[in-house]
Amino acid sequence: MRRAVLTLGGTVAGLAALLTFKSHSIADAAPAASPPPVSATTSAPAPAPASSKGTAAGKSTASASTSTRPTARTATGAVASTPYGPMQVELTFDGTKITKVTVLQQTDDGGESAAIDAAAIPKLTSETLAAQSGQIDAVSGASYTSSGYIKSLQSALDQA
């Protein structure tokens, strides 16, 4: 009798949880489709200034591109030695934001090392871009690669 009561109570609780679950519908994805018309709207005014009143539009475009170029800069990290070879990264900044990570040197101790790097470096790079700092997690199975990457990354951040 006791088992029947527990089973019935568990079934009722599970059914209540299932009925209150709210899944994402296609209507929730519709706002994501809204930005393309906005970008189409922003690209529509762009031809208008290019075709309007000559040099004023050209000067504003030139000053806008000139003002963004001085803020883009790079910082190269120190070469970090690992048991499987060197690791070195270069960061590209736009203002204070890290926009690109380039691995200049990576471990080179054979095929296994290359396979580990091929899996670990994209993860480390995406974490760097997401964190915008040197506070990233190491990749499991790539301890030496992660350690060298993070050391060189921190060195580049210190230079920036």
Describe the protein in words:
The chain is α+β, with helices and mostly antiparallel strands. The protein has helices at 2-20, 26-33, 35-43, 47-51, 55-71, 111-131, 143-159; strands at residues 72-76, 80-82, 85-94, 97-105. Helix 6 packs across helix 7. Strands 1, 2, 3 and 4 form a 4-stranded antiparallel beta sheet that branches. Mean pLDDT is 75; it is low at 24-68. A hairpin with a 2-residue loop joins strand 3 (85-94) and strand 4. The chain has a domain at 71-159: Sufe protein. Chain: A, CATH 3.90.1010. It contains 7 helices and 4 strands. The chain is 60% helix and 17% strand. It is elongated, with a radius of gyration of 26 Å.
Number of strands: 4
List the helices and strands in order.
HHHHHEEEEHH
Radius of gyration: 26 Å
Terminal Cα span: 71 Å
Approximate strand percentage? 15-25%
CATH topology term of the domain at 71-159:
Sufe protein. Chain: A
Low-confidence stretches: 24-68
Keywords, please?
alpha+beta, Sufe protein. Chain: A, 4-stranded antiparallel beta sheet, elongated
